């Protein structure tokens, strides 16, 4: 078994990212260093490594994502471990990180609502070494996972992880320079039409945005101002085709829209806004 064989098996199963996933398997399972990959990708693997990769391929072609199988996913500059209560970090969410970095050079406090693995907040704390973060998630398992990821990255002393729904676990007088979230945004009726690796393995709590997929945004935007420092910013991810509705909800809440940013495919993905002198 080698790169060509692995890639062909993945591609034959209709997996669009066959090239990338074959490379990940060889780097992570076969232990081929990244700088040596193109020189060693076609070398024969030991029987033990080949059997392990084959077992992963068997699960992958049945619709389980590679991240779920391996138990981790790389995001921004770090590796984040997953659990049943967390979504997999995805490359398009890195646009959210870029938007915070673009306009806020030195936040002191960051709030991440629905933190999951903690990938957004922890990546921001790596970029802002003087900031402290608060992570909130309704799923206890997600809170445990985010805490473990913080420890692995040496950030546990700069993060407070709270279990609860949205703003409920926050002290009433809490305010933050930056508030971020990747809330559930899939309309309830559309979840059954998602890819098998999503609908069968991702936590529904982190996917279901209500009848129109907008319920979390309506709730968040009606409460965010109270928790935002003067001139602080909010950056939220949203789903395909939701940009106009999200912009309307943001403006109706009295916020000032800064920009809507596109993801890696050129589709609107992230909205940034402020409440000015709130």
Describe what you observe in this structure.
With 278 residues, this protein is of the alpha/beta class. The protein has twelve helices and nine strands. It has helices spanning 3-12, 18-28, 37-40, 47-60, 66-70, 94-103, 119-127, 140-152, 196-199, 215-221, 224-227, 243-252; strands at 72-75, 78-81, 109-113, 132-137, 159-163, 176-181, 228-237, 256-262, 268-274. The strands form two sheets. It has a seven-stranded mixed β-sheet, with helices on both faces. A two-stranded antiparallel ribbon has the order 1-2. Helix 1 packs across helix 2 (18-28) and helix 6 packs parallel to helix 7.
In brief, what are we looking at here?
The protein has 278 residues and is an alpha/beta fold. 36% of the residues lie in helices and 19% in strands.
Helix-strand layout with pairing:
Elements (H helix, E strand, L loop, with lengths): L2 H10 L5 H11 L8 H4 L6 H14 L5 H5 L1 E4 L2 E4 L12 H10 L5 E5 L5 H9 L4 E6 L2 H13 L6 E5 L12 E6 L14 H4 L15 H7 L2 H4 E10 L5 H10 L3 E7 L5 E7 L4
Parallel strand pairs: 3-4, 3-6, 4-5, 6-7
Antiparallel strand pairs: 1-2, 7-9, 8-9
Helix pairs in contact: 1-2, 6-7
């Amino acid at each position: 078994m080698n790169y060509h064989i692995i890639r062909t098996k993945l591609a034959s199963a209709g997996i669009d990212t066959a090239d990338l996933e074959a490379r990940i398997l060889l780097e992570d399972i076969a232990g081929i260093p990244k700088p040596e990959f193109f020189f060693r990708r076609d070398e024969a693997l030991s029987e033990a490594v080949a059997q392990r990769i084959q077992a992963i391929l068997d699960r992958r072609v049945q619709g389980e994502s590679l991240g779920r199988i391996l138990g981790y996913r790389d995001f921004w500059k770090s590796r984040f471990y997953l659990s049943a209560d967390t979504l997999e970090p995805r490359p398009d969410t890195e646009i959210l990180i870029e938007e915070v970095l673009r306009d806020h050079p030195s936040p002191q406090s960051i709030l991440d609502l629905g933190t999951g693995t903690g990938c957004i907040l922890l990546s921001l704390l790596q970029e802002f070494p003087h900031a402290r973060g608060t992570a909130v998630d309704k799923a206890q398992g997600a809170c445990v996972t985010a805490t473990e990821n913080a420890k692995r990255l040496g950030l546990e002393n700069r993060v407070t992880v709270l279990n609860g729904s949205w703003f409920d676990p926050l002290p009433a007088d809490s305010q933050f320079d930056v508030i971020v979230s990747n809330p559930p945004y899939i309309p309830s009726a559309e979840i059954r039409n998602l890819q098998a690796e999503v609908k069968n393995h991702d936590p529904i709590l982190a996917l279901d945005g209500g009848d129109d997929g907008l319920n979390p945004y309506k709730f968040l935007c009606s409460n965010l101002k109270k928790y935002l420092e003067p001139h602080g910013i909010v950056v939220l991810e949203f789903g395909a085709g939701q940009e106009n509705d999200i912009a309307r909800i943001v403006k109706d809440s009295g916020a000032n829209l800064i920009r809507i940013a596109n993801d890696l495919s050129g589709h609107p993905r992230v909205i940034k806004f402020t409440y000015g002198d709130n």
